[in-house]
UniProtKB/TrEMBL annotation:
Protein name as catalogued: Rhamnogalacturonase A/B/Epimerase-like pectate lyase domain-containing protein
Keywords: Signal
Keyword Transcription regulation attributed: no
Residues making up the signal peptide according to the UniProt record: 1-22
Any matching Pfam family: Pect-lyase_RHGA_epim
InterPro entries for the chain: Pectin_lyas_fold (IPR012334), Pectin_lyase_fold/virulence (IPR011050), RHGA/B-epi-like_pectate_lyase (IPR024535)
Domain of life of the source: Bacteria
Gene source species: candidate division KD3-62 bacterium DG_56
Gene3D superfamilies from the UniProt entry: Single-stranded right-handed beta-helix, Pectin lyase-like
SUPFAM superfamilies: Pectin lyase-like (SSF51126)
Domain called Rhamnogalacturonase A/B/Epimerase-like pectate lyase: residue spans: 36-108
Keyword Zinc-finger: no
Length: 392
């Protein structure tokens, strides 16, 4: 009976309560949401919508947080956007999309053409800032050029925790995502074709998560013969991890880069973490370990496919490495020179891995070449063109 009385009182209060909407300037706050069109955004691909977007984002931040929505449209952004504390900028996508430029919620980025340094297109400026459900496209990037046109980072965070990037397509950024000092970052369902640098992570002191990221030629296809394709394969890096503690990476893929996954020592240290279901196809180095922590890189269910480069290796461990790399149930194949080149003073372990198709130039190269550190192999399979007796 007491519960019934409380329930009746609740509904009575609800019936007489004022509406939850409140005016913000001339704009109505619908629950937690603001619409950029109410701030003057047009979305016709010709009118600069930077000021309208930023006004909505600023009002949401002043209100203590909220969601800024952008419906279907091509929103020309001639400047830069800042997403503040507890604010989310959301488009209409609820899954990662492909070839959706000029469809859905598309931001057309044109600022600072030719400048690799400078302000990012979107800055995740404070804790809990979120970007979700948008496509970002650089219309002035010519995929038939000999090499990509430089731009600054598309999305960047410097020193804010719990930032999120979800359900985003980055069609053709020169530099896609930089997360520095972004503890507990969350990157999920991000597709794209970064032309020079993909995801850069450093100075992470609490567990960051990266899931379902797919870097593939969404920006105009790939032949391997066009000058731009070759430039990317000679210069670009898909994933880079400097100092990051307990990094979690799940179900990621990249195609056609010089380096698939680079692990390096920054001024703050190097990486350790859990990397499961990661893949690199047509990369000169699927894995490049310049250095990592003694706690180890724990790599499980990885797939690494070589390319035509004269120094192609599924995995290369540099002389500078001092840490531990452990690979479990991974596969290496494709037209590689070697499966792995291992140097340094660290420890590398392969357990139940599958090695195929090395020595593509028939020069007598071994599958594994070690000149330093400690190497352990257990239960691995070596097969070269169906020949299990090939030198390895």
């Amino acid at each position: 009976m007491r519960f019934a009385r409380y329930l009746c009182l609740y509904w009575a209060l609800l019936a007489v309560a004022p509406a939850a909407t409140a005016a913000v300037g001339e704009v109505m706050l619908l629950g937690p949401k603001l619409d950029v069109r109410a701030f003057g955004a047009i979305g016709d691909g010709r009118t600069d919508d930077t000021a309208a977007f930023q006004a909505a984002l600023d009002d949401a931040a002043k209100a203590g947080g909220g969601v800024v929505t952008a419906t279907r449209g091509n929103y020309l952004i001639k400047g830069h956007l800042t997403i503040g504390r507890d604010v989310a900028l959301e488009g209409i996508a609820t899954v990662p999309t492909a070839w959706s430029q000029n469809q859905g919620t598309t931001l057309l980025a044109v600022a600072d053409k030719g400048k690799a340094e400078g302000e990012p297109l979107i800055r995740l400026a404070s804790h809990n800032a979120t970007l979700k459900g948008v496509t970002i496209y650089y219309p002035d990037q010519d995929h038939n050029a000999e090499q990509p046109t430089p731009y600054a980072w598309t999305i960047r965070c410097d020193g804010a925790d719990n930032v999120s990037i979800v359900d985003v397509l980055l069609v053709n950024p020169y530099q896609a995502i930089s997360l520095v000092g972004a503890g507990r970052h969350y990157v999920r369902n991000v597709y794209g074709h970064p032309l020079y640098r993909g995801l850069y992570v450093d100075q992470i002191y609490d567990v960051g998560r990266v899931e379902n990221v797919h870097f593939w030629p969404f920006s105009g296809g790939w032949t391997g013969e066009r000058p731009r394709d070759k430039w990317i394969n000679d210069n670009a890096i898909a994933f880079e991890f400097g100092r990051t503690d307990w990094q979690y990476v799940l179900n990621t893929f990249c195609f056609g880069y010089k380096v698939g996954y680079r692990f390096f020592r920054s001024g703050k240290g190097s990486a350790n973490g859990n990397f499961s279901g990661i893949g690199a196809d047509r990369c000169v180095y699927g894995l490049l370990v310049e250095d990592c922590e003694l706690f180890g890189l724990l790599i499980t269910n990885g797939e690494f496919v070589g390319n035509w480069g004269p120094d192609a290796n599924g995995m290369k461990v540099a002389p500078t490495n001092r840490g531990v790399v452990q690979l479990q149930n991974c596969a290496f194949w494709g037209s590689s020179n070697r499966i792995a080149t291992i140097e340094g003073s660290g420890t590398v372990t392969f357990n139940a891995c599958n090695f195929m198709q090395w020595d593509k130039h028939n020069r007598g190269e071994p599958a594994l070449w070690a000149n330093g550190g400690r190497v352990t192999l257990s239960g691995c399979n070596f097969t070269w063109q169906g020949d299990t007796n090939k030198q390895h």
